[in-house]
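ATP synthase F0 sector subunit C
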Amino acid sequence: MNNKKGLSFPLLIIAIIIGVAIYKDFDFKNLRFEKPALAIVYILTFLMTVFFLVKKPKGK
């Protein structure tokens, strides 16, 4: 039997929304974030979401 688990749809939506927010907050002209403290929170949340999306579930 094939017990592959697909991507989690809610986590995928969260990752897309936070990724877009990070992109919009970055100032490409000056290569800086407009709100650095908020950008740190966004990046940490984005990385955790991507980690949970790509980690493999422990099999029994």
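thats it. Residues 9-54 form one domain. Strands lie at 26-27, 32-33. bye
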